[in-house]
Amino acid sequence: MSHYKSNMRDIEFNLFEVLDRQEILGTGPFEEVDLDTARTILAEVDRMAREDLASSYGEGDRNPPSFDAAAGTADLPESFKKSYRAWMDSEFYRLWIPREIGGQPAPATLNWAIAELVLGANAPVWMYASSPGFASIVFRNGNHRDKRIAELMIEKEWGSTMVLTEPDAGSDVGAGRARATPNPDGSWNIEGVKRFITSAEHDMSENIIHLVLARPVGVEGVGGPGTKGLSLYIVPKLHFDHQTGELTGERNGVHVTNVEKKMGIKVSNTCEVTFGPDSNDAGEPARGWLLGEVHDGIAQMFQVIESARMMVGTKAIATLSTGYLNALAFARSRVQGPDLTRASDKTAPRVTITHHPDVRRSLLTQKSHAEALRALVLYTASWQDRVMIAEHQEVQDELAERVNDLLLPIVKGYGSERSWVLLGTESLQTLGGSGYLQDYPIEQYVRDAKIDTLYEGTTAIQGQDLFFRKIVKDQARALGHLAGEIDSFVTSEAGNGRLKVERALLATALGDGNAIVAAMVGQLMSADPAGGEGNHIRNVYKVGLNTTRLLMALGDIVCAWLLLRQAEVALTKLAGEVSAEDKDFYEGKVAAAQFFARTVLPKVAAERQIAEAVDLSVMDLPETAF
Ligand code: ST9
């Protein structure tokens, strides 16, 4: 039986009952993907995810690739390769990529819905298969040569990687020391050691294209300190003819020098990669080509990172969702103890654990969060749809870009934190001691989901990104828009009287969220010594003590709003004729929204108090006192 339990009903509810994606399917840039096609694709990906992709999930964990240092290889289990092949052969990746390189673009909402199914079933399949996405970035930013390379990456199904991190440059990408020196033929020699490089070695494609950040040296005007001095290079594992794609038989000086042993997603090879000759100056140089012949590496790499952060958030919620549905299936059949009302009666019949209040609390906690986070991913994607439509019309939808940017750290940071914690504290816990066994998939889910709070920018980085870049630098334009939308919901009559209490709770939480932002802006301004007496640069620490708090509080508020919007839709449906199955579904939507509003939102007030009262005592504590 498949470990993966998808929630197609909720995915379709989001797409077609809340976000009304049927209005854009089959139109504009999505001309070739109409509603029927979208539904057929979703059904097929769902089947494939539960069967072909999920089938190798456990095997990849129990028998992960092992690194052969002499050969520099880390071959994947056959079962995993079969899952990967099934996904690649479906060619659904073409829905992501531009027409010019063989794509058939679909709305981002449809693509992220598909992504959820694949990521929930077997996330490393998606990660190894993201090369067409990388090719899109190469195509978008590249010159004539690079555009051809992008085509070849897709035609030949080569693998790809994003290469930023170094042993001493993780969150601080700008501290990277890898260097690039120009050659007379227009190529560059790359030298340095990179770490934590996903998919840098495997036996599923004949070549791998690395997109490498390195600092150009010896060229006037480029290559300064920090991230802005980094350029992005296309560095192949094996050299090839840039026109035909034929491998020249020449090995490039790019060598995997270690594959990490990890807590989870073990089948996803996480590699140390050494570029250029070794410390004895032996070996071939690692030659690469500057992407687009412009020194704009960090901005180019962030095009990849933005997509990857969305991917990580989607992976996290996909895992929470299947974790919840596995816990629910267990709870429905597990008989244990009497009903609490008959606890003192030793002869009382034993009941399934779904009768116990604390199990119900736990299940609704899981359900409401999984569905809230799915709503968050797909709502964010709906702004990406707007960006795509505008680009197709050759205009810019600045608001859509800004709101998408604002939501990304919430999807990634809030989504991954809530998912990994709830998988452990609630989903696994529902199974009692059995949850700790490999007989059930949840212990693997917990291990596999932990990484989501770490890679592609830790939660701390997401919190800083949210406040400094997406709120302060944006002058709160996107935040103002979103807060305005939430405000109109709370002041509306949404829910026909049944959501009155919840709208009031949301109004209070929105006020508290705004107050946290205001407090942090005040703290930031007081850190400007030019601002006058009482101002001190150290006050910026107060902001830093609050950034993760703000990330989580805004996540709670936005998620509550999205769930309540869904409850409003559900209540409207319930007022008409619905099947028994739909009645249960819609009642479940209303219950999840009410539960989330009543149990999560009141906590935002406490976060506000803490944020406003933050002082410098934590920073004043001598390190030796920790
Ligand atoms: C990793 C791999 O963890 C994990 C698994 C990968 C799985 C791969 C498979 C999936 C891939 C999907 C690929 C598909 C592709 C696409 C498909 C499309 C169809 N937003 O604030 P400043 C830029 S890899 C946008 O001064 P610092 C911006 O250009 C490791 N841009 O930063 C900015 O200039 P300006 C992941 C942003 O203080 C410039 O950076 N590692 C954003 O110099 C400088 O900004 C990390 O994620 C943004 N949010 O550096 C690193 N932020 O201001 C985490 C910055 O002029 N660390 N830029 O616009 C950070 O993010 C740091 O905050 C820092 C700080 C490095 C940015």
From TrEMBL:
UniProt GO MF annotations: long-chain fatty acyl-CoA dehydrogenase activity; medium-chain fatty acyl-CoA dehydrogenase activity; short-chain fatty acyl-CoA dehydrogenase activity
Reaction catalyzed: butanoyl-CoA + oxidized [electron-transfer flavoprotein] + H(+) = (2E)-butenoyl-CoA + reduced [electron-transfer flavoprotein]; oxidized [electron-transfer flavoprotein] + hexadecanoyl-CoA + H(+) = (2E)-hexadecenoyl-CoA + reduced [electron-transfer flavoprotein]; a long-chain 2,3-saturated fatty acyl-CoA + oxidized [electron-transfer flavoprotein] + H(+) = a long-chain (2E)-enoyl-CoA + reduced [electron-transfer flavoprotein]; hexanoyl-CoA + oxidized [electron-transfer flavoprotein] + H(+) = (2E)-hexenoyl-CoA + reduced [electron-transfer flavoprotein]
Domain Acyl-CoA oxidase/dehydrogenase middle: 162-275
Protein's name according to its UniProt entry: Broad-specificity linear acyl-CoA dehydrogenase FadE5
Region Disordered, residue ranges: 53-73
One cellular component (GO) term of this entry: plasma membrane
E.C. no: 1.3.8.1, 1.3.8.7, 1.3.8.8
Sorted UniProt keywords: FAD, Fatty acid metabolism, Flavoprotein, Lipid metabolism, Oxidoreductase
GO biological process: fatty acid metabolic process
Residues of the Acyl-CoA dehydrogenase/oxidase C-terminal domain: 296-463
Membership in a protein family: Belongs to the acyl-CoA dehydrogenase family.
Cofactor(s) essential for the protein: FAD
Residues annotated as domain Acetyl-CoA dehydrogenase-like C-terminal: 483-622
Subunit structure: Homodimer.
Biological pathway: Lipid metabolism; fatty acid metabolism
Superkingdom assignment: Bacteria
Alphabetized InterPro entries for the sequence: Acyl-CoA_dh-like_C_dom (IPR025878), Acyl-CoA_Oxase/DH_mid-dom (IPR006091), AcylCo_DH-like_C (IPR036250), AcylCo_DH/oxidase_C (IPR009075), AcylCoA_DH/oxidase_NM_dom_sf (IPR009100), Diverse_Acyl-CoA_DH (IPR052166)
PANTHER family: ACYL-COA DEHYDROGENASE, BROAD-SPECIFICITY LINEAR ACYL-COA DEHYDROGENASE FADE5
Pfam family of the protein (one): Acyl-CoA_dh_C
Function: Acyl-CoA dehydrogenase that exhibits broad specificity for linear acyl-CoA substrates, with a preference for long-chain substrates.
